[in-house]
Structures are given as structure tokens and as C-alpha cells.
User: Which sequence fits this backbone?
């Protein structure tokens, strides 16, 4: 569930594209970011998480797939298992670290894909106008007619479980949103005088797009996309929670939430851990995205 | 206490934020008699709008510090509490703004916005307020007044909107009308109409008016007295005729020389070189000195006091006498 | 204005049709022979062929779509593979349950969002703004299905004051607005309310502070109007945008309740969807998605129309 109503919230969520973005502008952005401890703190946390996840084989104490039924659902700190063991006796800390890999992958990939595809289509629609714009935007409207969760579940449900299908369905959910944002921003920039004067002086369409339009629209679209990452993670883990994403025995935070549910009455603390990881990651991404948006919004 | 409508003595207004302190008004003093019109003339950033808003204490409360003496219609505005101030605004003093499209609430009808003001300040019922609203629209010469009562701001042309704003401002018969560049956003022909309307209304209602503008033509048309403002101070003040014919301060002379009107053809337009000073860091002496052709060392240590050939026409320039000589020449 | 209203309603028709098309295609993008979606796996070949002809699966796709559409418009959404009952019968009770949950959660979310958003919009930059914004960000960052589990652990497992599952005592079929049923509603609706609360807080904060920055606020002060009256002006100006966001959130909650319903075993459309997916009960899957999506289209339509009515700049332009 996202703030999909870009048209009503557009002005509040998307920073305006200012015409001249010289080096002074980006220096200003960097300066404002440096003075924002919350954003920097969250960005640091994310960076650390990423390092731990990437270095999983080096950092994790146990094997993520090896478990012993004799040691299932042990509490925190039991016999060297810092965060206890799961329902099949596997070390929780290891599972969480390795699970981060899949969760991050499932969360970030659809947004990256949607940024590419949606950005292309949105900028094209915004820049070309006319029937191209109508065609792209009407098709986008159809997908917008579905609530995100419903669409993701429907497509995943139809295609079946699996990582690839989950990524596909999530990408399909986010592409329309990015198209909308990209089209709005591009249309706003296209009508600005300096673009018109570039075209009037004979610059070819592609050049105008590359030199004048893209540098000014990529920023806002990128900020919007970073805001989507947290949603994507929650949705992706949600799909796994329903059994539609990752399949056992792969470690993934959402799937772990599902499989640990039965332990809710015996080891409640354990069952909360994977969800907490999703929450923390999602929160940090949101704070960073908000911080970026504030820093880039010249109006303050 | 004299019979003056406005008495301002040594008014200082500054905006204090975490990053800086902006000294927008630095020692403004003047009197306004009832039924008199004062025009404050200046560039953007001179402090004229801030001065005007200070006359109603309309500046943002959190950041603004107002010092000095200010009496309007017998009320002490510097010491007054917000409750008293809100009673005074709209009833004793009213203001009209530059851009009526943004200064009026877009989702309320004109009639409601007038009625709201009347109901706030006067103990009358809705029906009476509506009747007065209609009267006011006719007073400001809006055609089809009854229909316009139910119109929204965006449904009217610029000139009509400005008339509507004037109607709102006059709804409680204020003694003082403040106008912040009310004609700047209008077409030339409409400008004249509005100015004439304001003069007529002033005479009919017996109001004092303080007009802020950067347009010399407007000042010439409507003012009794003119005060030229620069860097938060009045650098020259006097009767409109005398000031325009024989300006005392180099800045005023620069402004008058910089118009396109009445200039001989083929000659370069005179401009004032340089830019207005940063209001965060004002110089100790005359603020215009860096841009002044007549500046000398004596201009720098302190701000010149007001002085001039006649009591009503004075300027802050140590070389006023010479300007007087030039005038005679 | 009537012209605009009619045009907007007419525009909803192709959207609804396209939504129907997407739902129809869901079956056909699934791997495998669509017949297997309708017929139990152990059916004899003759039956399979019969069903194939009856459902027109041997005909080209556009024809199939037309046939399907025809059935749907007559209220026939097919029969459930699992229970054999008409899909609509399965849906009726579920839709009602989800509607109850979504409406209660929406109202909760709106109230919290309005208070937090209003406070932070008015006192922008101050402590209360930062506190409210942090709560709002937390609200949209939390995986609500996890939050549901945390609430269950706190209130059901540890303190045992609220039930963990179901919609009523002993899963009784009916619903009544009595305490026995309402206590089941509390945890799921609070869980579900968190996300709209967060989104609405942010929306109201943005709208209110934008309005407070506009020129006419100065005029209102200049007329001597008191704080209460100015607040009224702000509310009226903010209403179209804010109500639009609230309406959309209600739509999202209806369509997106599956995760929370799964956590709490709340017998609504989400729960139905969940079991339909796992039983590969395609008619139920299709029917549920179609109903939820059409509901969302209708909500969108009403929100647009309401904005037109409320904002004089649109309707009388």
C-alpha cells in the first residue's frame, strides 16, 4: 500500500525541478545533507547492513541451512547462538544475515527495473506529448486502478511462487507509479522556457532530452524511487510471508516470519526478529529518502 | 496627543532567525494627518512593505522584533496585545495587497469574505452584513454587484478583483487604509481607474492613506506627501510637488532621472550603479554612499540626520545645501 | 460542471473494462492449460473436453473474453472449484467482513492522521512536528503483518486480553456490533490503521503548511480575524485534497487487507484470496480480484467527483 495518488500528493512528494543545476546546487545539497544527522545516521546504518550482508560468508557464525532438530527454537544466547535458533534448529543470526541478501535483493531489484523501464516510458510520454503520451498514460491508468498489494498478489498468485515471479510482479506494480512521476516532472520541465529555446535554436530532440531534460528530471524520479524501496521490501517480504515469493529452505525475512509463526506462543521474541529487520531497513530507507528530498528542495 | 492619525517615532523592525538578523526598518519616523495620503517610494528590498505591515503589526510574529513608538488612531501598537491588535485590524486600519488573486481566499465567495469582516467587527446580523456587502460592491463601482456577491475570485478580472479587495478593506469604515502596491499587477488603463477610485473613496470616507509603490507616476498621481525609502530608512520626505520638482537626496534624483518619461531622445538613460546594501550587514554611515556620485569621507562615520531648506521637505544627506544650490541654478 | 461529471463517469467505463481484461488474463498467464484451472485434476478426458467446449476455451481469446464478460455482467462469476458453490456466494460474506474491517481501520487512521498532520502542519519545524513526522514515517515503514504479530504477542499471548484470530466467538457465521465481536475487531483494525495514519499525516502536514504559506492568510490576519476563523479557512481550503487522499486510502485498505487478514485469520476477501491461491481455485481468485478492483475504481471515481464538487476552482472553471 503506497501513496499511489501522485496527482493529489504530487506537489508535496516530488521536489520541483529547478532549471539551472550547476555545481553550486549539488554543493548545496551536499552541505544540507551533512548538517542532517538523522539522514546521515540512517544512511550509515544502511551501509553497515549492506556490508554485513555482502560479507555474509565471512561474518555469519553458522551455516544457514544446517540445523539440528534437537536444538529447535532455542532462546537468545543459547549455546553460542546469539539470537537463538529457528523452528528447524538453524542459527537465527546466520539466517537473518543470509536472509538479508534475498530480502534486499527482492526489495531493490524491482525498484531498479521499474526506475529504468518506468523512467524511460515516463520521460518519453512527458517529452513527446500527443498520442504517445495518451497511449502510455491510459495504459498506466489501468494498472493504477489496482491497489498495489492486490496487483502484486494477483500476478504472483497467477504465475506461482518463486523469486523470479515475485520480482516480475513487483516490477509491474512499480512501473506505473514511476511512469506517473516521470511524466509529471518531464512535462513540467518541457514547458519551461529554456527547453523551448533550446529546441528553437535547432537542437535535436534527443540532444535536448539528454542535455536539458534528463539532468533535471532524474533527480526527483530518483528520490521517488528511493522512497519506493521500503515499500518494495515490505511487499516482497509480504509475498514470501504468504508463500508466494521465496520458497523454503532459502532464508528470507518474510518467509522466516511465516515459518516462525507457529512459535508465537512459545518463543515470541524469536518470531519478532525477522520482522524487526524489515522494519529497521525500511525505516532507514524512508528517512534517507526524506532527507534527500529535503536537501534537494531549494524552497526548503 | 496631537490630532495625527499616525505617529511613528524611531521605528525599528528586524527579523531574527538562527542564521542571521535582517534589519529591515532602521529608524523611521513620520506623522500622518487624517485624510492625508503618504506615498512610500522605494526599490524592492528597501523595507517599504515591512514598514507598511508593521503599521498593522502584520509581520510574522515568531521572527519579528518591533521597537520604537507607534500610535495609530490613538492606539499604541507596539505595546498592544494580539487580542487588541486583531480588533484594530480591519476596523481602524485596513490593508489592500498587490496581487488580489493570491490575496483572496480562493474557495470563498467575495460576498462571504466581505460579510466575514463585517461580522467580525460590528454587532450586526447576517442580513444586515449582506446588505452592506452589496452596498460596498456598488461603492467600488463593480457592475452587476448583486451577481458578483456569489462570485469566486478566479471568476473575475484583475481589476474587478482589486475592487473587491478594496470593498473588503473598507467594509468597516477604517480611518487608515494601507495599500501595498495595489496597482502594480494591473494593466495600465485599469491602474488609473483604481487610483482614481481610491482617491474618490478617500475623500468620501475621510480616510488617511499610506501607499507603498516603486512607481513614480503612481506617487505623483495620488500622494500628498512622499517618503523615499532606502535600506530601511526615509532618506527624503516632503510634499509631492516639491520632491518631484526639486529632489534633495542623490538617490531620489537618481530615481527621478531613471524613468523613461520626458527624457530627451538620443541620450543615454541614467541609472544608479551598484546594488542595494545587504540588510544583514548595514554600514555605519550613509547606506547610499557606496553608490553615490557625491559621496565623501564625511558620509561614512554616521547616518546623516534629516535636514533641508524647508521644515516639510528634508533629506538625509550632508550635502543637501549643495543640492539646493544646484536647484537654484 | 455536469458535463465534467458525465465525462468522468464515462471515463470509468473503459477503465472498468480494462480491469476486467486484466483479471481475465490472469488465468491465461498462469503456466499450464487453463482447463486445469477449472476442472479437478483427476477428471476423465471426456469431461475435460466437455468443459473446454462449455467454457469456450477452444475459441479465440477475444471471444472467450466476451463470453466471460457476459457472464460477469449477469452476476455469474463461476463456481468455486473447492466448494462447488457459486463464487458470489463465497464472496458476499467475505466482502462484508473486509468492509467492516476496512471502514473501522480507515476511520481510526483518518482520526490519528488528522490530529498528527494538523498539529505538525501548523507548528511546522517545532518539536511536535518532528515527533508527529517521526511517528508517521514509522507508520509507513512498519511491515503491517509483522506489527499484527507483535500486537498478537503483546495482547493475546502475554496479557491475554484480546483474541488472536477470527471474527467472532466460535467463528459464528453472523456479525453483530456487540462486545463479543468487537473485541475481535480491535487488533486487526489497529494494525491495518497504521499505514493510512502515516500517509494521511504526511498528506495533511504538506497541505496545511502549503496553505499557511499562501498570501491570503496574511489578508485574513489583516482583516482582524481570530485564530479559529483562520483555521476554518485552512480546513476548507485543505478539504478537497485531504478528502481525496482519505478516500483513496479506504480503497487501498479494501484491496490490500490480505496480509493483515492472514495474520489474524479474519474471514474477509483477503483470507479468501489466500486460500484461493493455495487451492488453485481460479474462479474464486478471479472473482475476488475483480470485485476488489472494481470497488477501487468506484472509490477513485467518487473521490474525483467529490473533489470537483468541493473545489470551486475546478467545477466552475
Assistant:
Amino acid at each position: 500500500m503506497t501513496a499511489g495518488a501522485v496527482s493529489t500528493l504530487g506537489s508535496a512528494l516530488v521536489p520541483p525541478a529547478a532549471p539551472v543545476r550547476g555545481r553550486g546546487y549539488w554543493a548545496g545539497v551536499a552541505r544540507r545533507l551533512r548538517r542532517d544527522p538523522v539522514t546521515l545516521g540512517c544512511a550509515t546504518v544502511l551501509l553497515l547492513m549492506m556490508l554485513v550482508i555482502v560479507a555474509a560468508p565471512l561474518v555469519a557464525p553458522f551455516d544457514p541451512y544446517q540445523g539440528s532438530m534437537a536444538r529447535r527454537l532455542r532462546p537468545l544466547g543459547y549455546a553460542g547462538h546469539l539470537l537463538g535458533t529457528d523452528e528447524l534448529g538453524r542459527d537465527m543470526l546466520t539466517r537473518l544475515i543470509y536472509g538479508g541478501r534475498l530480502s534486499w535483493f527482492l526489495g531493490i531489484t524491482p525498484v531498479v527495473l521499474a526506475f529504468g523501464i518506468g523512467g524511460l516510458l515516463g520521460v518519453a510520454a512527458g517529452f513527446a506529448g500527443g498520442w504517445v503520451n495518451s497511449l502510455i498514460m491510459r495504459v498506466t491508468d489501468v494498472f493504477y486502478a489496482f491497489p498495489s498489494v492486490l496487483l502484486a498478489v494477483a500476478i504472483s498468485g497467477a504465475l506461482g511462487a518463486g523469486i523470479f515471479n515475485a520480482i516480475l510482479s513487483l516490477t509491474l506494480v512499480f512501473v506505473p507509479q514511476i511512469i506517473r512521476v516521470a511524466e509529471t516532472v518531464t512535462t513540467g520541465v518541457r514547458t519551461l522556457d529554456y527547453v523551448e529555446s533550446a529546441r528553437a535554436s535547432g537542437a535535436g530532440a534527443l540532444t535536448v532530452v539528454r542535455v536539458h531534460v534528463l539532468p533535471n528530471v532524474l533527480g526527483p524520479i530518483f528520490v521517488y524511487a528511493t522512497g519506493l524501496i521500503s515499500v518494495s521490501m515490505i511487499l516482497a517480504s509480504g509475498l514470501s510471508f504468504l508463500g508466494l515469493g521465496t520458497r523454503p529452505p532459502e532464508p528470507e525475512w518474510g518467509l522466516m516470519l511465516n515459518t516462525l509463526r507457529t512459535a508465537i506462543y512459545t518463543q515470541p521474541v524469536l518470531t519478532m526478529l525477522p520482522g524487526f529487520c524489515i522494519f529497521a531497513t525500511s525505516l532507514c530507507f524512508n528517512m534517507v529518502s526524506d532527507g534527500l528530498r529535503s536537501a534537494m528542495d531549494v524552497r526548503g | 496627543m496631537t490630532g495625527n492619525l499616525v505617529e511613528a517615532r524611531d521605528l525599528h523592525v528586524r527579523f531574527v532567525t538562527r542564521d542571521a538578523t535582517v534589519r529591515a526598518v532602521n529608524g523611521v519616523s513620520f506623522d500622518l494627518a487624517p485624510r492625508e495620503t503618504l506615498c512610500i517610494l522605494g526599490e524592492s528590498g528597501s523595507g517599504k512593505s515591512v514598514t507598511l505591515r508593521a503599521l498593522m503589526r502584520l509581520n510574522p510574529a515568531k521572527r519579528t522584533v518591533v521597537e520604537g513608538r507607534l500610535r495609530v488612531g490613538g492606539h499604541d501598537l507596539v505595546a498592544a496585545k494580539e487580542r487588541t491588535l486583531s480588533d484594530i485590524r480591519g476596523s481602524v486600519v485596513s490593508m489592500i495587497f498587490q496581487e488580489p488573486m493570491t490575496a483572496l481566499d480562493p474557495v470563498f465567495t467575495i460576498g462571504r469574505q466581505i460579510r466575514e469582516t463585517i461580522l467580525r467587527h460590528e454587532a450586526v446580523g447576517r442580513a444586515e452584513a449582506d446588505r452592506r456587502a452589496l452596498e460596498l460592491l456598488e461603492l467600488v463601482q463593480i457592475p452587476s454587484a448583486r451577481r458578483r456577491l456569489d462570485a469566486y475570485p478566479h471568476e473575475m478580472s484583475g481589476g474587478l478583483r482589486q475592487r473587491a479587495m478594496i470593498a473588503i478593506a473598507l467594509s468597516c469604515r477604517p480611518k487608515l487604509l494601507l495599500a501595498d502596491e495595489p496597482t502594480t499587477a494591473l494593466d495600465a488603463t485599469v491602474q488609473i481607474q483604481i487610483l482614481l477610485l481610491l482617491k474618490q473613496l478617500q475623500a468620501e470616507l475621510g480616510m488617511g492613506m499610506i501607499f507603498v509603490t516603486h512607481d513614480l507616476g503612481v506617487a505623483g498621481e495620488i500622494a500628498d506627501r512622499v517618503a523615499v525609502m532606502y535600506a530601511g530608512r526615509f532618506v527624503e520626505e516632503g510634499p509631492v510637488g516639491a520632491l518631484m520638482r526639486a529632489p534633495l537626496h542623490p538617490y531620489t534624483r537618481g530615481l527621478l532621472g531613471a524613468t523613461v518619461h520626458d527624457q530627451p531622445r538620443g541620450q543615454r538613460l541614467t541609472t544608479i550603479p551598484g546594488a542595494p546594501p545587504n540588510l544583514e550587514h548595514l554600514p555605519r554611515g550613509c547606506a547610499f554612499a557606496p553608490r553615490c556620485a557625491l559621496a565623501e569621507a564625511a558620509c561614512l562615520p554616521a547616518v546623516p540626520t534629516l535636514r533641508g531648506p524647508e521644515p516639510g521637505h528634508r533629506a538625509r544627506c550632508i550635502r543637501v545645501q549643495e543640492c539646493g544650490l544646484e536647484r537654484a541654478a | 460542471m455536469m458535463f465534467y461529471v458525465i465525462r468522468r463517469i464515462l471515463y470509468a467505463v473503459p477503465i472498468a473494462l480494462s480491469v476486467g481484461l486484466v483479471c481475465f488474463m490472469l488465468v491465461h498467464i498462469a503456466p499450464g492449460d487453463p482447463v486445469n484451472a477449472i476442472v479437478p485434476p483427476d477428471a476423465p478426458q471426456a469431461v475435460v473436453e466437455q468443459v473446454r467446449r462449455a467454457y469456450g476455451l477452444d475459441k479465440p481469446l477475444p471471444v472467450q473474453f466476451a463470453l466471460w464478460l457476459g457472464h460477469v455482467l449477469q452476476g455469474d462469476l463461476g463456481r468455486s472449484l473447492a466448494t462447488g458453490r457459486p463464487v458470489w456466494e463465497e464472496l458476499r460474506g467475505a466482502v462484508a467482513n473486509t468492509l467492516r474491517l476496512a471502514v473501522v481501520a480507515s476511520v481510526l487512521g483518518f482520526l490519528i492522521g488528522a490530529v498528527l498532520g494538523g498539529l505538525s502542519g501548523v507548528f511546522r519545524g517545532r518539536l511536535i512536528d518532528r515527533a508527529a513526522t517521526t511517528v508517521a514515517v514509522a507508520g509507513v515503514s512498519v511491515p503491517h503483518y509483522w506489527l499484527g504479530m507483535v500486537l498478537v504477542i503483546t495482547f493475546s499471548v502475554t496479557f491475554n486480553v484480546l483474541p488472536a484470530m477470527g471474527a467472532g466467538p466460535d467463528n459464528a457465521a453472523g456479525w453483530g456490533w456487540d462486545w463479543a465481536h468487537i473485541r475481535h475487531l480491535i487488533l486487526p483494525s489497529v494494525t491495518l490503521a497504521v499505514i493510512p495514519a502515516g500517509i494521511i499525516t504526511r498528506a495533511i502536514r504538506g497541505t496545511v503548511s502549503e496553505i499557511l504559506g499562501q498570501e491570503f492568510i496574511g489578508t485574513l490576519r489583516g482583516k482582524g480575524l481570530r485564530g479559529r476563523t483562520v483555521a476554518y479557512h485552512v480546513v476548507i481550503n485543505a478539504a478537497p485534497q485531504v478528502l481525496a487522499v482519505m478516500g483513496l486510502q479506504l480503497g487501498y485498505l479494501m484491496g490490500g487487507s490480505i496480509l493483515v487478514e492472514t495474520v489474524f485469520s479474519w474471514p474477509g476477501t483477503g483470507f479468501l484470496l489466500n486460500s484461493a491461491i493455495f487451492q488453485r481455485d481460479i474462479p474464486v481468485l478471479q472473482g475476488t480480484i475483480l470485485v476488489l478492483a472494481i470497488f477501487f475504481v468506484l472509490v477513485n471515481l467518487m473521490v474525483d467527483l467529490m473533489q470537483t464538487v468541493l473545489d470551486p476552482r475546478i467545477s466552475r472553471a
